[in-house]
């Protein structure tokens, strides 16, 4: 092969490699964009479903004044809703860990935290109305803080709360809420119970007991 032909062959190899690289790069960007949109869509679906369910529960608040009001049914429905919120929160956490957090996902997360806050208020009112015996266990955590020490501590808290929920079942209404998303209603509640963002993560039991450090699930259970 003469020098000119060799040079031409090398050029062809270069352009072929360049085209393939551009194609793979563009394909990766497109796939990532589609995956991110799919996650955001799934989160939005969670929000819409929870919003519908919460609207249903808020209607129940109006039913509380009816003579035929049944506390047992209301408590059961509230516990079922709490379980669904908890399971969706765990799936939402997986999405957060497996993807780069975009502005759209942050917004959906904030909307979801508003719903959890409203549900917390509803749970408090129902306990007062019906003298329900379940325990509110509200887990307030950092969502936007990326420090490794905070993430590690929150992983420990989350795992221990999972253990408590698995063992206690309907005796515990576990409500995880991101507490640094500037939700005004949640900020008011945190102020009422003397909780600041600098303390996060925090576990609040029955609106009375504040936990900022723990080593085992038993540390929580002995306070129930």
Explain what this protein looks like in three dimensions.
The chain has 224 residues and is an alpha+beta fold. The chain has one domain: Glutaredoxin (3-Layer(aba) Sandwich), CATH 3.40.30. 68% of the residues lie in helices and 9% in strands. The chain contains 6 helices and 4 strands. It has helices at residues 3-63, 71-98, 103-130, 148-168, 184-192, 217-221, and strands spanning 135-141, 172-178, 202-205, 209-211. The protein has a 4-stranded mixed beta sheet with strand order 2-1-3-4, sandwiched between helices. Strand 1 (135-141), helix 4 (148-168) and strand 2 form a beta-alpha-beta unit. Helix 1 (3-63) runs antiparallel to helix 2 (71-98), helix 1 (3-63) runs parallel beside helix 3 and helix 2 runs antiparallel to helix 3. The N and C termini lie far apart (84 Å).
Separate helix tally: 6
CATH fourth-tier homologous superfamily: Glutaredoxin
CATH architectural arrangement:
3-Layer(aba) Sandwich
Helix content: 55-70%
Summarize the main sheet: 4 strands, mixed
Terminal residue distance:
84 Å
How many structural domains in the coordinates?
1
Which word captures the global form? globular
CATH topology: Glutaredoxin
* Helix/strand class: alpha+beta
Order of helices and strands: HHHEHEHEEH
**Per DSSP, what share of the residues sits in E-state strands of 2 or more residues?**
5-15%
Q: Report the CATH C-level class.
A: Alpha Beta
Strand order of the largest sheet: 2-1-3-4
Rg of Cα set: 24 Å
Number of distinct beta strands: 4
- Uncertain segments are none
Name the average pLDDT: 78
């Amino acid at each position: 092969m003469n020098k000119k032909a060799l040079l031409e062959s090398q050029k062809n190899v270069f352009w072929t490699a360049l085209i393939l690289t551009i194609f793979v790069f563009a394909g990766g960007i497109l796939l990532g964009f589609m995956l991110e949109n799919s996650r955001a869509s799934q989160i939005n679906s969670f929000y819409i479903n929870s919003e519908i369910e919460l609207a249903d529960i808020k209607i129940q608040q109006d039913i509380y004044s009816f003579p035929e009001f049944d506390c047992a049914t209301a408590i059961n429905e509230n516990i079922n809703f709490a379980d669904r919120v908890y399971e969706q929160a765990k799936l939402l956490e997986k999405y957060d860990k497996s993807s780069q957090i975009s502005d759209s996902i942050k917004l959906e997360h904030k909307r979801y935290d508003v719903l959890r806050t409203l549900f917390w208020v509803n749970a408090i009112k129902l306990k007062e109305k019906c003298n329900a015996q379940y325990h509110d266990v509200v887990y307030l955590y950092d969502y936007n803080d990326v420090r490794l020490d905070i993430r590690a501590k929150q992983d420990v808290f989350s795992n221990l709360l999972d253990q408590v929920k698995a063992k206690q079942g309907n005796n515990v209404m576990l409500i995880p809420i991101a507490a640094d998303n500037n939700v005004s209603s949640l900020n008011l509640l945190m102020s009422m119970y003397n909780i600041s963002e600098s303390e996060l993560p925090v576990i609040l039991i029955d609106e009375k007991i504040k936990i900022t450090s723990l080593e085992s699930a038993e540390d929580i259970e002995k306070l129930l």
